[in-house]
Amino acid sequence: MKKLFICLILSIVLFGCNTKGPNDVRMVKIGASISELKYIMGEPWSVEINRDTETWYFSYRSNGHNEGLHVTIKDGKVADFYSY
After folding, report:
1. CATH node for 21-83
2. Does the pLDDT of residue 6 top 60, yes or no?
3. How far apart are CA 41 and CA 67, in angstroms?
4. Residue 12 belongs to what H/E stretch?
């Protein structure tokens, strides 16, 4: 029971720290480097690796709702992105 409580507290702390909002998402630009993207959005919650591209998935809060950001990386730069 004690371990479950500790895991719950850690989960709240870790997931609660992701306070990226719509203003951060607006800073993402085509041609931005991976380090710039990570500085703006933090670490992605998921990465999909294809033959010549990577797709990074981020989450953020906007108007009280959870939103997502889908970023395509090619040659170490942001090639495309959209919010959903």
Report:
1. 3.30.1450.10
2. no
3. 13
4. helix 2-16
Residues 7-11: contacts with CB within 8 Å, 24+ apart? none
CB of 44 within 8 A of CB of 58?
A: yes
Residue position matching structure tokens 């719509």: 22
E-strand stretches of the chain: 46-49, 54-62, 65-74, 77-83
How far apart CA 40 and CA 19 sit, in angstroms, is 11
pLDDT one-digit tens code per residue, 25-74: 889 999 999 999 999 999 999 999 999 999 999 998 888 888 999 999 99
CB 67 within 8 A of CB 61: yes
The whole-angstrom separation of Cα 4 and Cα 82 is 37
